[in-house]
Amino acid sequence: MMKTNIVLGVIGADCHAVGNKVLDYAFTQGGFEVINIGVLSAQEDFINAAIETNAAAILVSSLYGHGEMDCRGLREKCEEAGLKDILLYAGGNLVVGKQDFDSVKERFEKMGFDRVYAPGTSPDAGIADLKTDLAEAEEMAHYKQDFKKVS
Amino acid sequence: MMKTNIVLGVIGADCHAVGNKVLDYAFTQGGFEVINIGVLSAQEDFINAAIETNAAAILVSSLYGHGEMDCRGLREKCEEAGLKDILLYAGGNLVVGKQDFDSVKERFEKMGFDRVYAPGTSPDAGIADLKTDLAEAEEMAHYKQDFKKVS
Amino acid sequence: MELKNKKLSEESFFQERKEVLTHWVTGKDVDLQEAVDYLKQIPKHKNFALKMRKAKADGITLAQPRAGVALVDEHIKLLQYLQNEGGADLLPNTIDSYTRQNRYQEGQAAIDESMRENRSMLNGFPVVNHGVHNCRKVLDAVELPLQARHGTPDARLLTEIIHAGGWTSNEGGGISYNIPYAKSISLEKTIRHWQYCDRVTGLYEEMGVEINREPFGPLTGTLVPPSMSNAVAIIEGLLAAEQGVKNLTLGYGQCGNLTQDVAAIRALEEQATEYFKEYGYEIDLTTVLHQWMGGFPADEAKSFGVISWGAATAALAGATKVIVKTPHEAMGIPTMEANAQGIRSTKQTLNLLKGQRLSISKDLGMEKELIKAETKCILDKVFELGNGDLAVGAVKAFETGVMDIPFAPSNYNAGKILPARDNNGAVRYLEFGNIPMNKEIKDFNNQLLAERAKLEGREVSFQMVVDDIYAVGKGTLVGRPEIK
Amino acid sequence: MELKNKKLSEESFFQERKEVLTHWVTGKDVDLQEAVDYLKQIPKHKNFALKMRKAKADGITLAQPRAGVALVDEHIKLLQYLQNEGGADLLPNTIDSYTRQNRYQEGQAAIDESMRENRSMLNGFPVVNHGVHNCRKVLDAVELPLQARHGTPDARLLTEIIHAGGWTSNEGGGISYNIPYAKSISLEKTIRHWQYCDRVTGLYEEMGVEINREPFGPLTGTLVPPSMSNAVAIIEGLLAAEQGVKNLTLGYGQCGNLTQDVAAIRALEEQATEYFKEYGYEIDLTTVLHQWMGGFPADEAKSFGVISWGAATAALAGATKVIVKTPHEAMGIPTMEANAQGIRSTKQTLNLLKGQRLSISKDLGMEKELIKAETKCILDKVFELGNGDLAVGAVKAFETGVMDIPFAPSNYNAGKILPARDNNGAVRYLEFGNIPMNKEIKDFNNQLLAERAKLEGREVSFQMVVDDIYAVGKGTLVGRPEIK
């Protein structure tokens, strides 16, 4: 079976590389083909890499507190670039200061992210979620196809 | 001038001796004649010592949290024993647990204590207060005497 | 009866026991054989002696808090919290001060008032009032070994009740629970009482139940020179061993200078081992370091600094156990949340330092030899005073000021010695009183304090001692004069 | 222009300077002579270089937090709080990430949004946007020396502004603010940029104003073997000295094993001194230890344990300064209250340990010699690659992987080496990549890691490294496999 491609990177002016290297290792071990665009990556870098590799998901990390500003509009730009239904995950220290995580999560979900992770989440949680989400997406795709056949 | 006698001790089943020894040293240095009845002292021990030495004040320490129970009724027993107007001071960790000091102070003042000290108060504060209180008491005594002469 | 360091005879012990069990109504529930059967079936992980032995073998340091409240259910809630939220390795039952003075009637009144007022009016768990079945109830409710920590000169009934109740460790000793905790009880009496307590432990050992015993190391907890507390610990260890105690934890209260603290713990372990060997006792020996027992800063963040440094010292010394303080220390008895915080910061430090030990250096070696030499000066004289009998010697040593604990409340303590810190914060003898140190040792102590006095531009005096007592609470180790 | 480790000529410096000051509108307010006059009249107690020198002479360790927010008045409030409530000895101005990338336009947008939203949308103080007069406003509002702490590959304009603004210390360096902070900026470029920054400092020195410079010691802050970070620190120190820097603080990030950390700080100070002497530079050298830079526990009590242990390590090592973490570390940027708590627990620990040093032992001596030998292997090769020119050598060393920093984001870093902890928690080389260590050193590192692998019953692998990265956050130093 061909491996699923996913794009991994640290967004904005953020240069935290340690977690990025660990996520790369963990998702590769988890069975994914990781396209790691590294730190200091613009929204366009994520989108271009996803188009080039026909990726099923974009995993955005942000550790330095500017994540909220850096991630705004990413979903819309994906849509414009034709990346419909691509999974968007975000995780790390997404905002400046100690804020209630639930409200941070809500803000990111409103911005179009499918999954939002608190600081300190194990990579395993993300891997499990990604497998679930991809299976669901596939099922949905089959269902749509079946529906076409019938109709 | 003769030194003023004061009675010093740790009340109840309390055996904390370090502060007692430091207070003894400090009040002696401060110019008082300290009658130190030591730790594990009953209310009666304080009163007997005060009567025997014609003391102007009783300084009660309690470090172990049972002070509230141990000090109840001390003022009344002093009155019964004829120690009218004797100054009563209390200080230390007077109650079990972290409680608002203002409410502790209020409870002890209601019990008839003239001064109540929070944990960590310097002996110097007590010495200064005692000098003020004794001067006031003396003035009041003069005033009463003068009043007698006039009337 | 004449005091002697000799195992109590079966006859005299059981005769005394009959009377002891009548001291309070709960005494009648103690049945030795039933207790042994009960103790034999409690799970191994709840046995204090086994857990201490294993920790030593594994080279790790266990963390134990202090805690106790008036009512059983509240006490259980507290211990469960410290176990689950604090991550404690061992649990205490701190006993209230009325029980420590055998004032069970007053304890009962306070229990009743605690129920009415719905807050603990006691500074600990009144275990004699609660009795055997409540001890067992507490043990059933937790998954860790239990110890009684108190300060009771006459702990005979308490000892009977806690062990029958499944608590497998008891803190105390004839000297360490008298001189710092009592005013007018003779040492002869308390040493005799603690022979009884140790004999109870010995009996359990002989009947196949391991029980841990821990003499109280820090004494008055205030600037006690290590050689004096080590001398007490070794004497109490030997007295306990004679009564049949097999699993022993000797303690020391952190003074604050790393080299001295590590030297003290290691000197204690090595020297005690030598004495046990010399007198033919086979002992499972472990050590405990008490985090700083003196005044604490009122600020919680600063308190965490003091607590963590105590944890680091215990780990670097290689102590088997550390007794944990809390960020509420300056305010008196802590909330259970603050208590758990103290354990968590301690455990984090212990885990970071797992396997790390302070390596032997010239300084450390010298300090260790100094402590041993000072301790030996004291112990030699104690044996001499007792004509070879340690119990008699100890009583006479306190009478003559050969042993003397600074800031102790007891009338049976000479109170002639004074301690103070040197420029590095190590605790030295400022006044030797009647302690029989040799000239070399005296000169060395004097020299170090003279150096400090010179640096501070003042005379060596009691003010220096007072400044040292309050120094840690104000943020430093050495109490320097304020610069005006 | 060709890169060379040679003091920039006056002509080329001032030509470059003209252009640098146009990078953002606030550049026009920098007037060197006016700045020198201003700096000469600021009170001595606000000069960073003087305070560091005095601390070293007094044998004490100073505490400095990290802190910075978007708006000037809020930033002042924050610094005043850390000064008054935290008791900081030195104050930082942590610069935001847009400024670090010279993205002043985005910084301006975030300042505007911060004003509208009334919360800081930046992770630091955007000093270039705020300009010289706001730097002075900050200095006027506090009573401590100020430093800029950032991570800016091209910090030329920033350096001009902060020093003219009265901040008397600047963190950074051509390697340490590139490899861990940039992705695709060549080392040649950043070394050249930092020669400019160092030359600015040198000019001030020549005009009679002392300025402190601090290369960034911890690099990626994650399992960096001490010899690699010491090699970077010594190279940056030598490069700075060539440009006229006189007051230098070399840094190191705590790894967690006490022996290794103390050895690293002492090896750094001793070896740097030797190199400065060899190359004829007279330097006022001081050291800084960064409290644990890796993952923190989420729990605040546990974090205090980590923080205090860092403080203790700095004191025992004899570092001149310690950079302080906060109990909010795991959650990102701390509140000012949490920041002050971190300082207070640090200061309490430093005060308790004042004057206490880790004594030299066999272990400590060996570890120090090992670090020096490893560092020398690296530096010898760097000089060789540059034909004696350190700037050229450094660029070639990173090209060839002779120097290589674990977990760095830069494309100019080989990324071939891997670190892991040995059984005592000391950081060792698991993969050497192209680092030119001699066989003895390689064998020793391999042996220590093989011992760990054996104890854990697994192979030496990247999983071991991952486990070590997350270990402290989970409460331990060494990332042992979970027992199933």
Describe this structure in a few short sentences.
The complex is a heterotetramer, with two copies of chain A (151 residues) and two copies of chain C (484 residues). In chain A, 48% of the residues lie in helices and 21% in strands.
Explain this structure.
Chain A has about 150 residues and is an alpha/beta fold. Chain A has helices at about 20-30, 45-55, 65-70, 75-80, 100-110, 125-150, and strands at about 5-10, 35-40, 55-60, 85-90, 115. Chain A has one domain (about 5-150): 3-Layer(aba) Sandwich (Rossmann fold), CATH 3.40.50. Helices cover about 50% and strands about 20% of the residues of chain A. Chain A has a five-stranded parallel beta sheet with strand order 2-1-3-4-5, sandwiched between helices. Chain C folds into two domains: about 10-350, TIM Barrel (Alpha-Beta Barrel); about 415-484, Glutamate mutase, C-terminal domain (Alpha-Beta Complex). Chain C has 17 helices and ten strands. Chain C has helices at about 10-20, 30-40, 50-60, 70-85, 95-100, 105-115, 125-140, 155-165, 185-205, 225-240, 260-280, 300-315, 335-350, 360-385, 390-400, 440-455, 460-470; strands spanning about 60-65, 90-95, 145-150, 170, 210-215, 245-255, 285-290, 320-325, 420, 425-430. An eight-stranded parallel beta sheet of chain C has the order 1-8-7-6-5-4-3-2. In chain C, helix 4 (about 70-85) runs parallel beside helix 13, helix 8 runs parallel beside helix 9 (about 185-205) and helix 12 packs across helix 13. The termini of chain C are far apart. The interface between A and D is medium-sized, with 28 and 39 residues.
Quick tags:
heterotetramer, A: 151 residues, Rossmann fold, 6 helices, C: 484 residues, alpha/beta, Glutamate mutase, C-terminal domain, 2 domains, eight-stranded parallel sheet, 17 helices, 9% strand
